[in-house]
Amino acid sequence: MTSEHFHEGELRLQEQTGDREKIAVMTRHLMHDFMPDQHREFFEGLEYIFLGTVDVKGLPHASIVTGPMGFATSPDPKTLVIQTDDRTAKPAIEALDIGQAVGVVGLDLSNRRRNRMHGKITAMDDVSVTITVVQSYGNCPKYISLREISERELPVEGGVVETREALNADDTALIEAADTFLIASYVQDGSDAAYEGVDVNHRGGQPGFVSVDGPSQITIPDYRGNNLFNTFGNLLLNPDAGLLFIDFDTGDQLHLHGKASLIEGAEEVAQTPGALRLLRVQINSVRRIAKATSLRWTFVEHSPVSPDLPPEKE
User: Fold this and answer.
1) What are 183-230's pLDDT values in tens digits?
2) Which of 8, 14, 186, 264 is the most buried (most CB within 10 A)?
């Protein structure tokens, strides 16, 4: 079962929540095959954009690309051009090719505004990629912690790159202190439908909301959102996930890849306040890049709607 906007995995979860009909009505006004003018202006005013891509091995990547305001432009409602010469996420960007699907989320941490889009690359060169919109829509500000850019144009060349199969103590500390991460997922069924492609999205909560269960496993709560289930629906059909954690103070990036599974058992979910379900990721590769991001941010405040953590995690 599929629809114009959603595939089987997304629809299955929408049915479970009882929101399928409401979402069908909502998406007629929410989802477009173009970017409204306010979305185009929003992207053009950003200094960082998050991309979801898939490499030649079929692994999804969540990446950040940065640049001065205006490094992303929208010459028309169907097109977004991103200057990539910063190459903050070089491995993922190098894997891109014309015709490839890509997910985009514009996220302004200074005001919690968030817009999403996925499309296909229709042109690219050494310094830019051109994306033609397939599906575009706005997202709510829930669970986004406020931050302001404090430093710009810091050097990113020469950062130490570490690769390993599991988390070490420094990785664990970064994850356990995080209130924000990005996750990329994708579905390809050969249909060329609007729902097919790559998704990247923000997940947030109080610091510690991501549980590190061991060197090769993390567990993430799913809080109440818009119930579109783009990420979780993708992962039901294709468990490959790419996660990005950023140290906003140092510019370090932590990239994780693994297999994700949905946990819906009432007893286990009930142990996490505010969670409707859990996402468990079995990690099979870790890549940490020192000072990989050319920006630094100053923390302002956590989202007021992020659920409290269990007492033993506070």
Assistant:
1) 999 998 777 766 678 999 999 999 999 999 999 999 999 998 777 788
2) 186
- Report the distance separating Cα 275 and Cα 311, nearest Å: 15
Structural contact between residues 184 and 193, judged by C-beta atoms closer than 8 angstroms: no
Tens of pLDDT, residues 85-110: 755 445 567 678 899 999 999 999 99
Find the radius of gyration of the CA atoms of the chain. Answer: 18
Beta strands in the chain (DSSP E): 48-54, 60-66, 72-76, 79-83, 101-108, 113-124, 128-139, 146-151, 161-164, 180-187, 197-204, 211-214, 217-222, 240-246, 253-263, 277-289, 296-301
* b/e sequence 176-201, b meaning 16+ C-beta within 10 Å: eebbbbbbbbbbeeeeebbbbbbbbb
Going along the chain from its start, the domains and CATH numbers come out as 8-304+306-310 (2.30.110.10)
Residue 107: half-sphere exposure toward Cβ, Cα within 13 Å: 26
Strand partners, 182: 202, 244
- Structure tokens that stand for 47 in this block: 């200094």
Q: What share of the chain is helix, strand, coil (3-state, %, to 5)?
A: 20, 40, 40
Distance CA 52, CA 163 (A): 20
Cα–Cα distance measured from residue 60 to residue 188, given in angstroms and rounded to the nearest whole number: 12
Q: What CA–CA distance (Å, rounded) separates 311 from 225?
A: 24
In the block, residue with structure tokens 């829509």: 137
pTM equals: 0.94
Quote the tokens at residue 57: 């091995």
Q: Report the distance separating Cα 46 and Cα 109, nearest Å.
A: 10
